Amino acid sequence: MRDTQQLVVDSLNYGSLVDPWTAEGYQATSGAGQSGCRVSNPGTTGANGRSAARFPDGNDTDSNCGDFQTASGPTPGASNDVSFTLSPGPRVSLQTTAPSGSSNYLQHGSTTTSVVTGPVTAASPNADKQNATFVKAAGLANPSCFSFEAVNRPGNYLRHQGFVVSLQPDDGSTLFSQDATFCQVAGNNGRGASFQSVNFSTRYLRDYNGGVYLAGPPGTNEWDTSVSFADDTSWLVATPWAPAP
């Protein structure tokens, strides 16, 4: 969008079409977990009657990551009548089991794709509780495993890229389905559960220094260290902080 003097005042990066100098949010890798900030392309998901829509209607925080969600029931030429459908499955929150972080939960950023661990309590803002709640849905690549869909960003799942976990919109590709699917096994430290990547079977979701990674031997990344590996890769599948209405 340009003003009367043809200066750019707003922009939207759609799917993989990117204009970096007018970008709203990171488009290329820029720090751990930043793998692209764009509006998802609902046309590649194979679903009918879906559209990218600002949510809430008219929302504009100058971040494509946070302003748009994929909605069912498009309303071209009218106000967004945004309705969202989450995948079937129970709502869960994933709690760390490391002794030093018993109140820490896996959570995504409010306006970014980053995924971290941090404290969530009964006194936390509702936004934090929603960011720490996911639908534990049938795995996109293997229905016997699981994919974790953000309850406040339908169509966005935990996904590993470069062994860094972030929240990304489903683009309908085989690679995305594999990167976003994790098989649950007994917790590596004897507590809770561990989540094994479907396409890197020796690697697990790991909490490491407040970030979330895919870690395991014979990796050479910092987060592949064997120190506290069993604790860091074990999670409690806890009661959701944001229950279904």
What does this molecule look like?
With 245 residues, the chain is mainly beta. The chain folds into 2 domains: 1-85, no CATH class; 91-238, Trefoil (Acidic Fibroblast Growth Factor, subunit A). Helix content is 8%, strand content 29%. The protein is built from 4 helices and 14 strands. Strand 6 and strand 7 form a beta hairpin. It starts with 49 loop residues before the first strand and ends in a 7-residue tail after the last strand. The model is unreliable at 25-36 (pLDDT under 50).
In what range is the share of β-strand residues? Answer: 25-35%
SSE-based structural type: mainly beta
CATH topology of the largest domain: Trefoil (Acidic Fibroblast Growth Factor, subunit A)
Q: Secondary-structure element sequence?
A: EHEEEEHEEEEHEEEEHE
Count of distinct strands? 14
What profile does the largest beta sheet have?
4 strands, antiparallel
CATH architecture of the largest domain: Trefoil
Question: What is the end-to-end distance?
Answer: 37 Å
* Overall pLDDT metric: 82
Strand order of the largest sheet: 7-6-3-14
Number of helices: 4
Radius of gyration: 18 Å
Provide the low-confidence segments as ranges.
25-36
Overview features:
2 domains; mainly beta; Trefoil (Acidic Fibroblast Growth Factor, subunit A); globular; 4 helices; 245 residues
Please render the helix and strand layout as text.
Elements: E1 50-54, H1 64-67, E2 68-72, E3 91-96, E4 104-108, E5 115-119, H2 126-131, E6 134-138, E7 146-150, E8 156-161, E9 164-169, H3 174-179, E10 182-186, E11 193-197, E12 204-208, E13 211-215, H4 229-232, E14 235-238
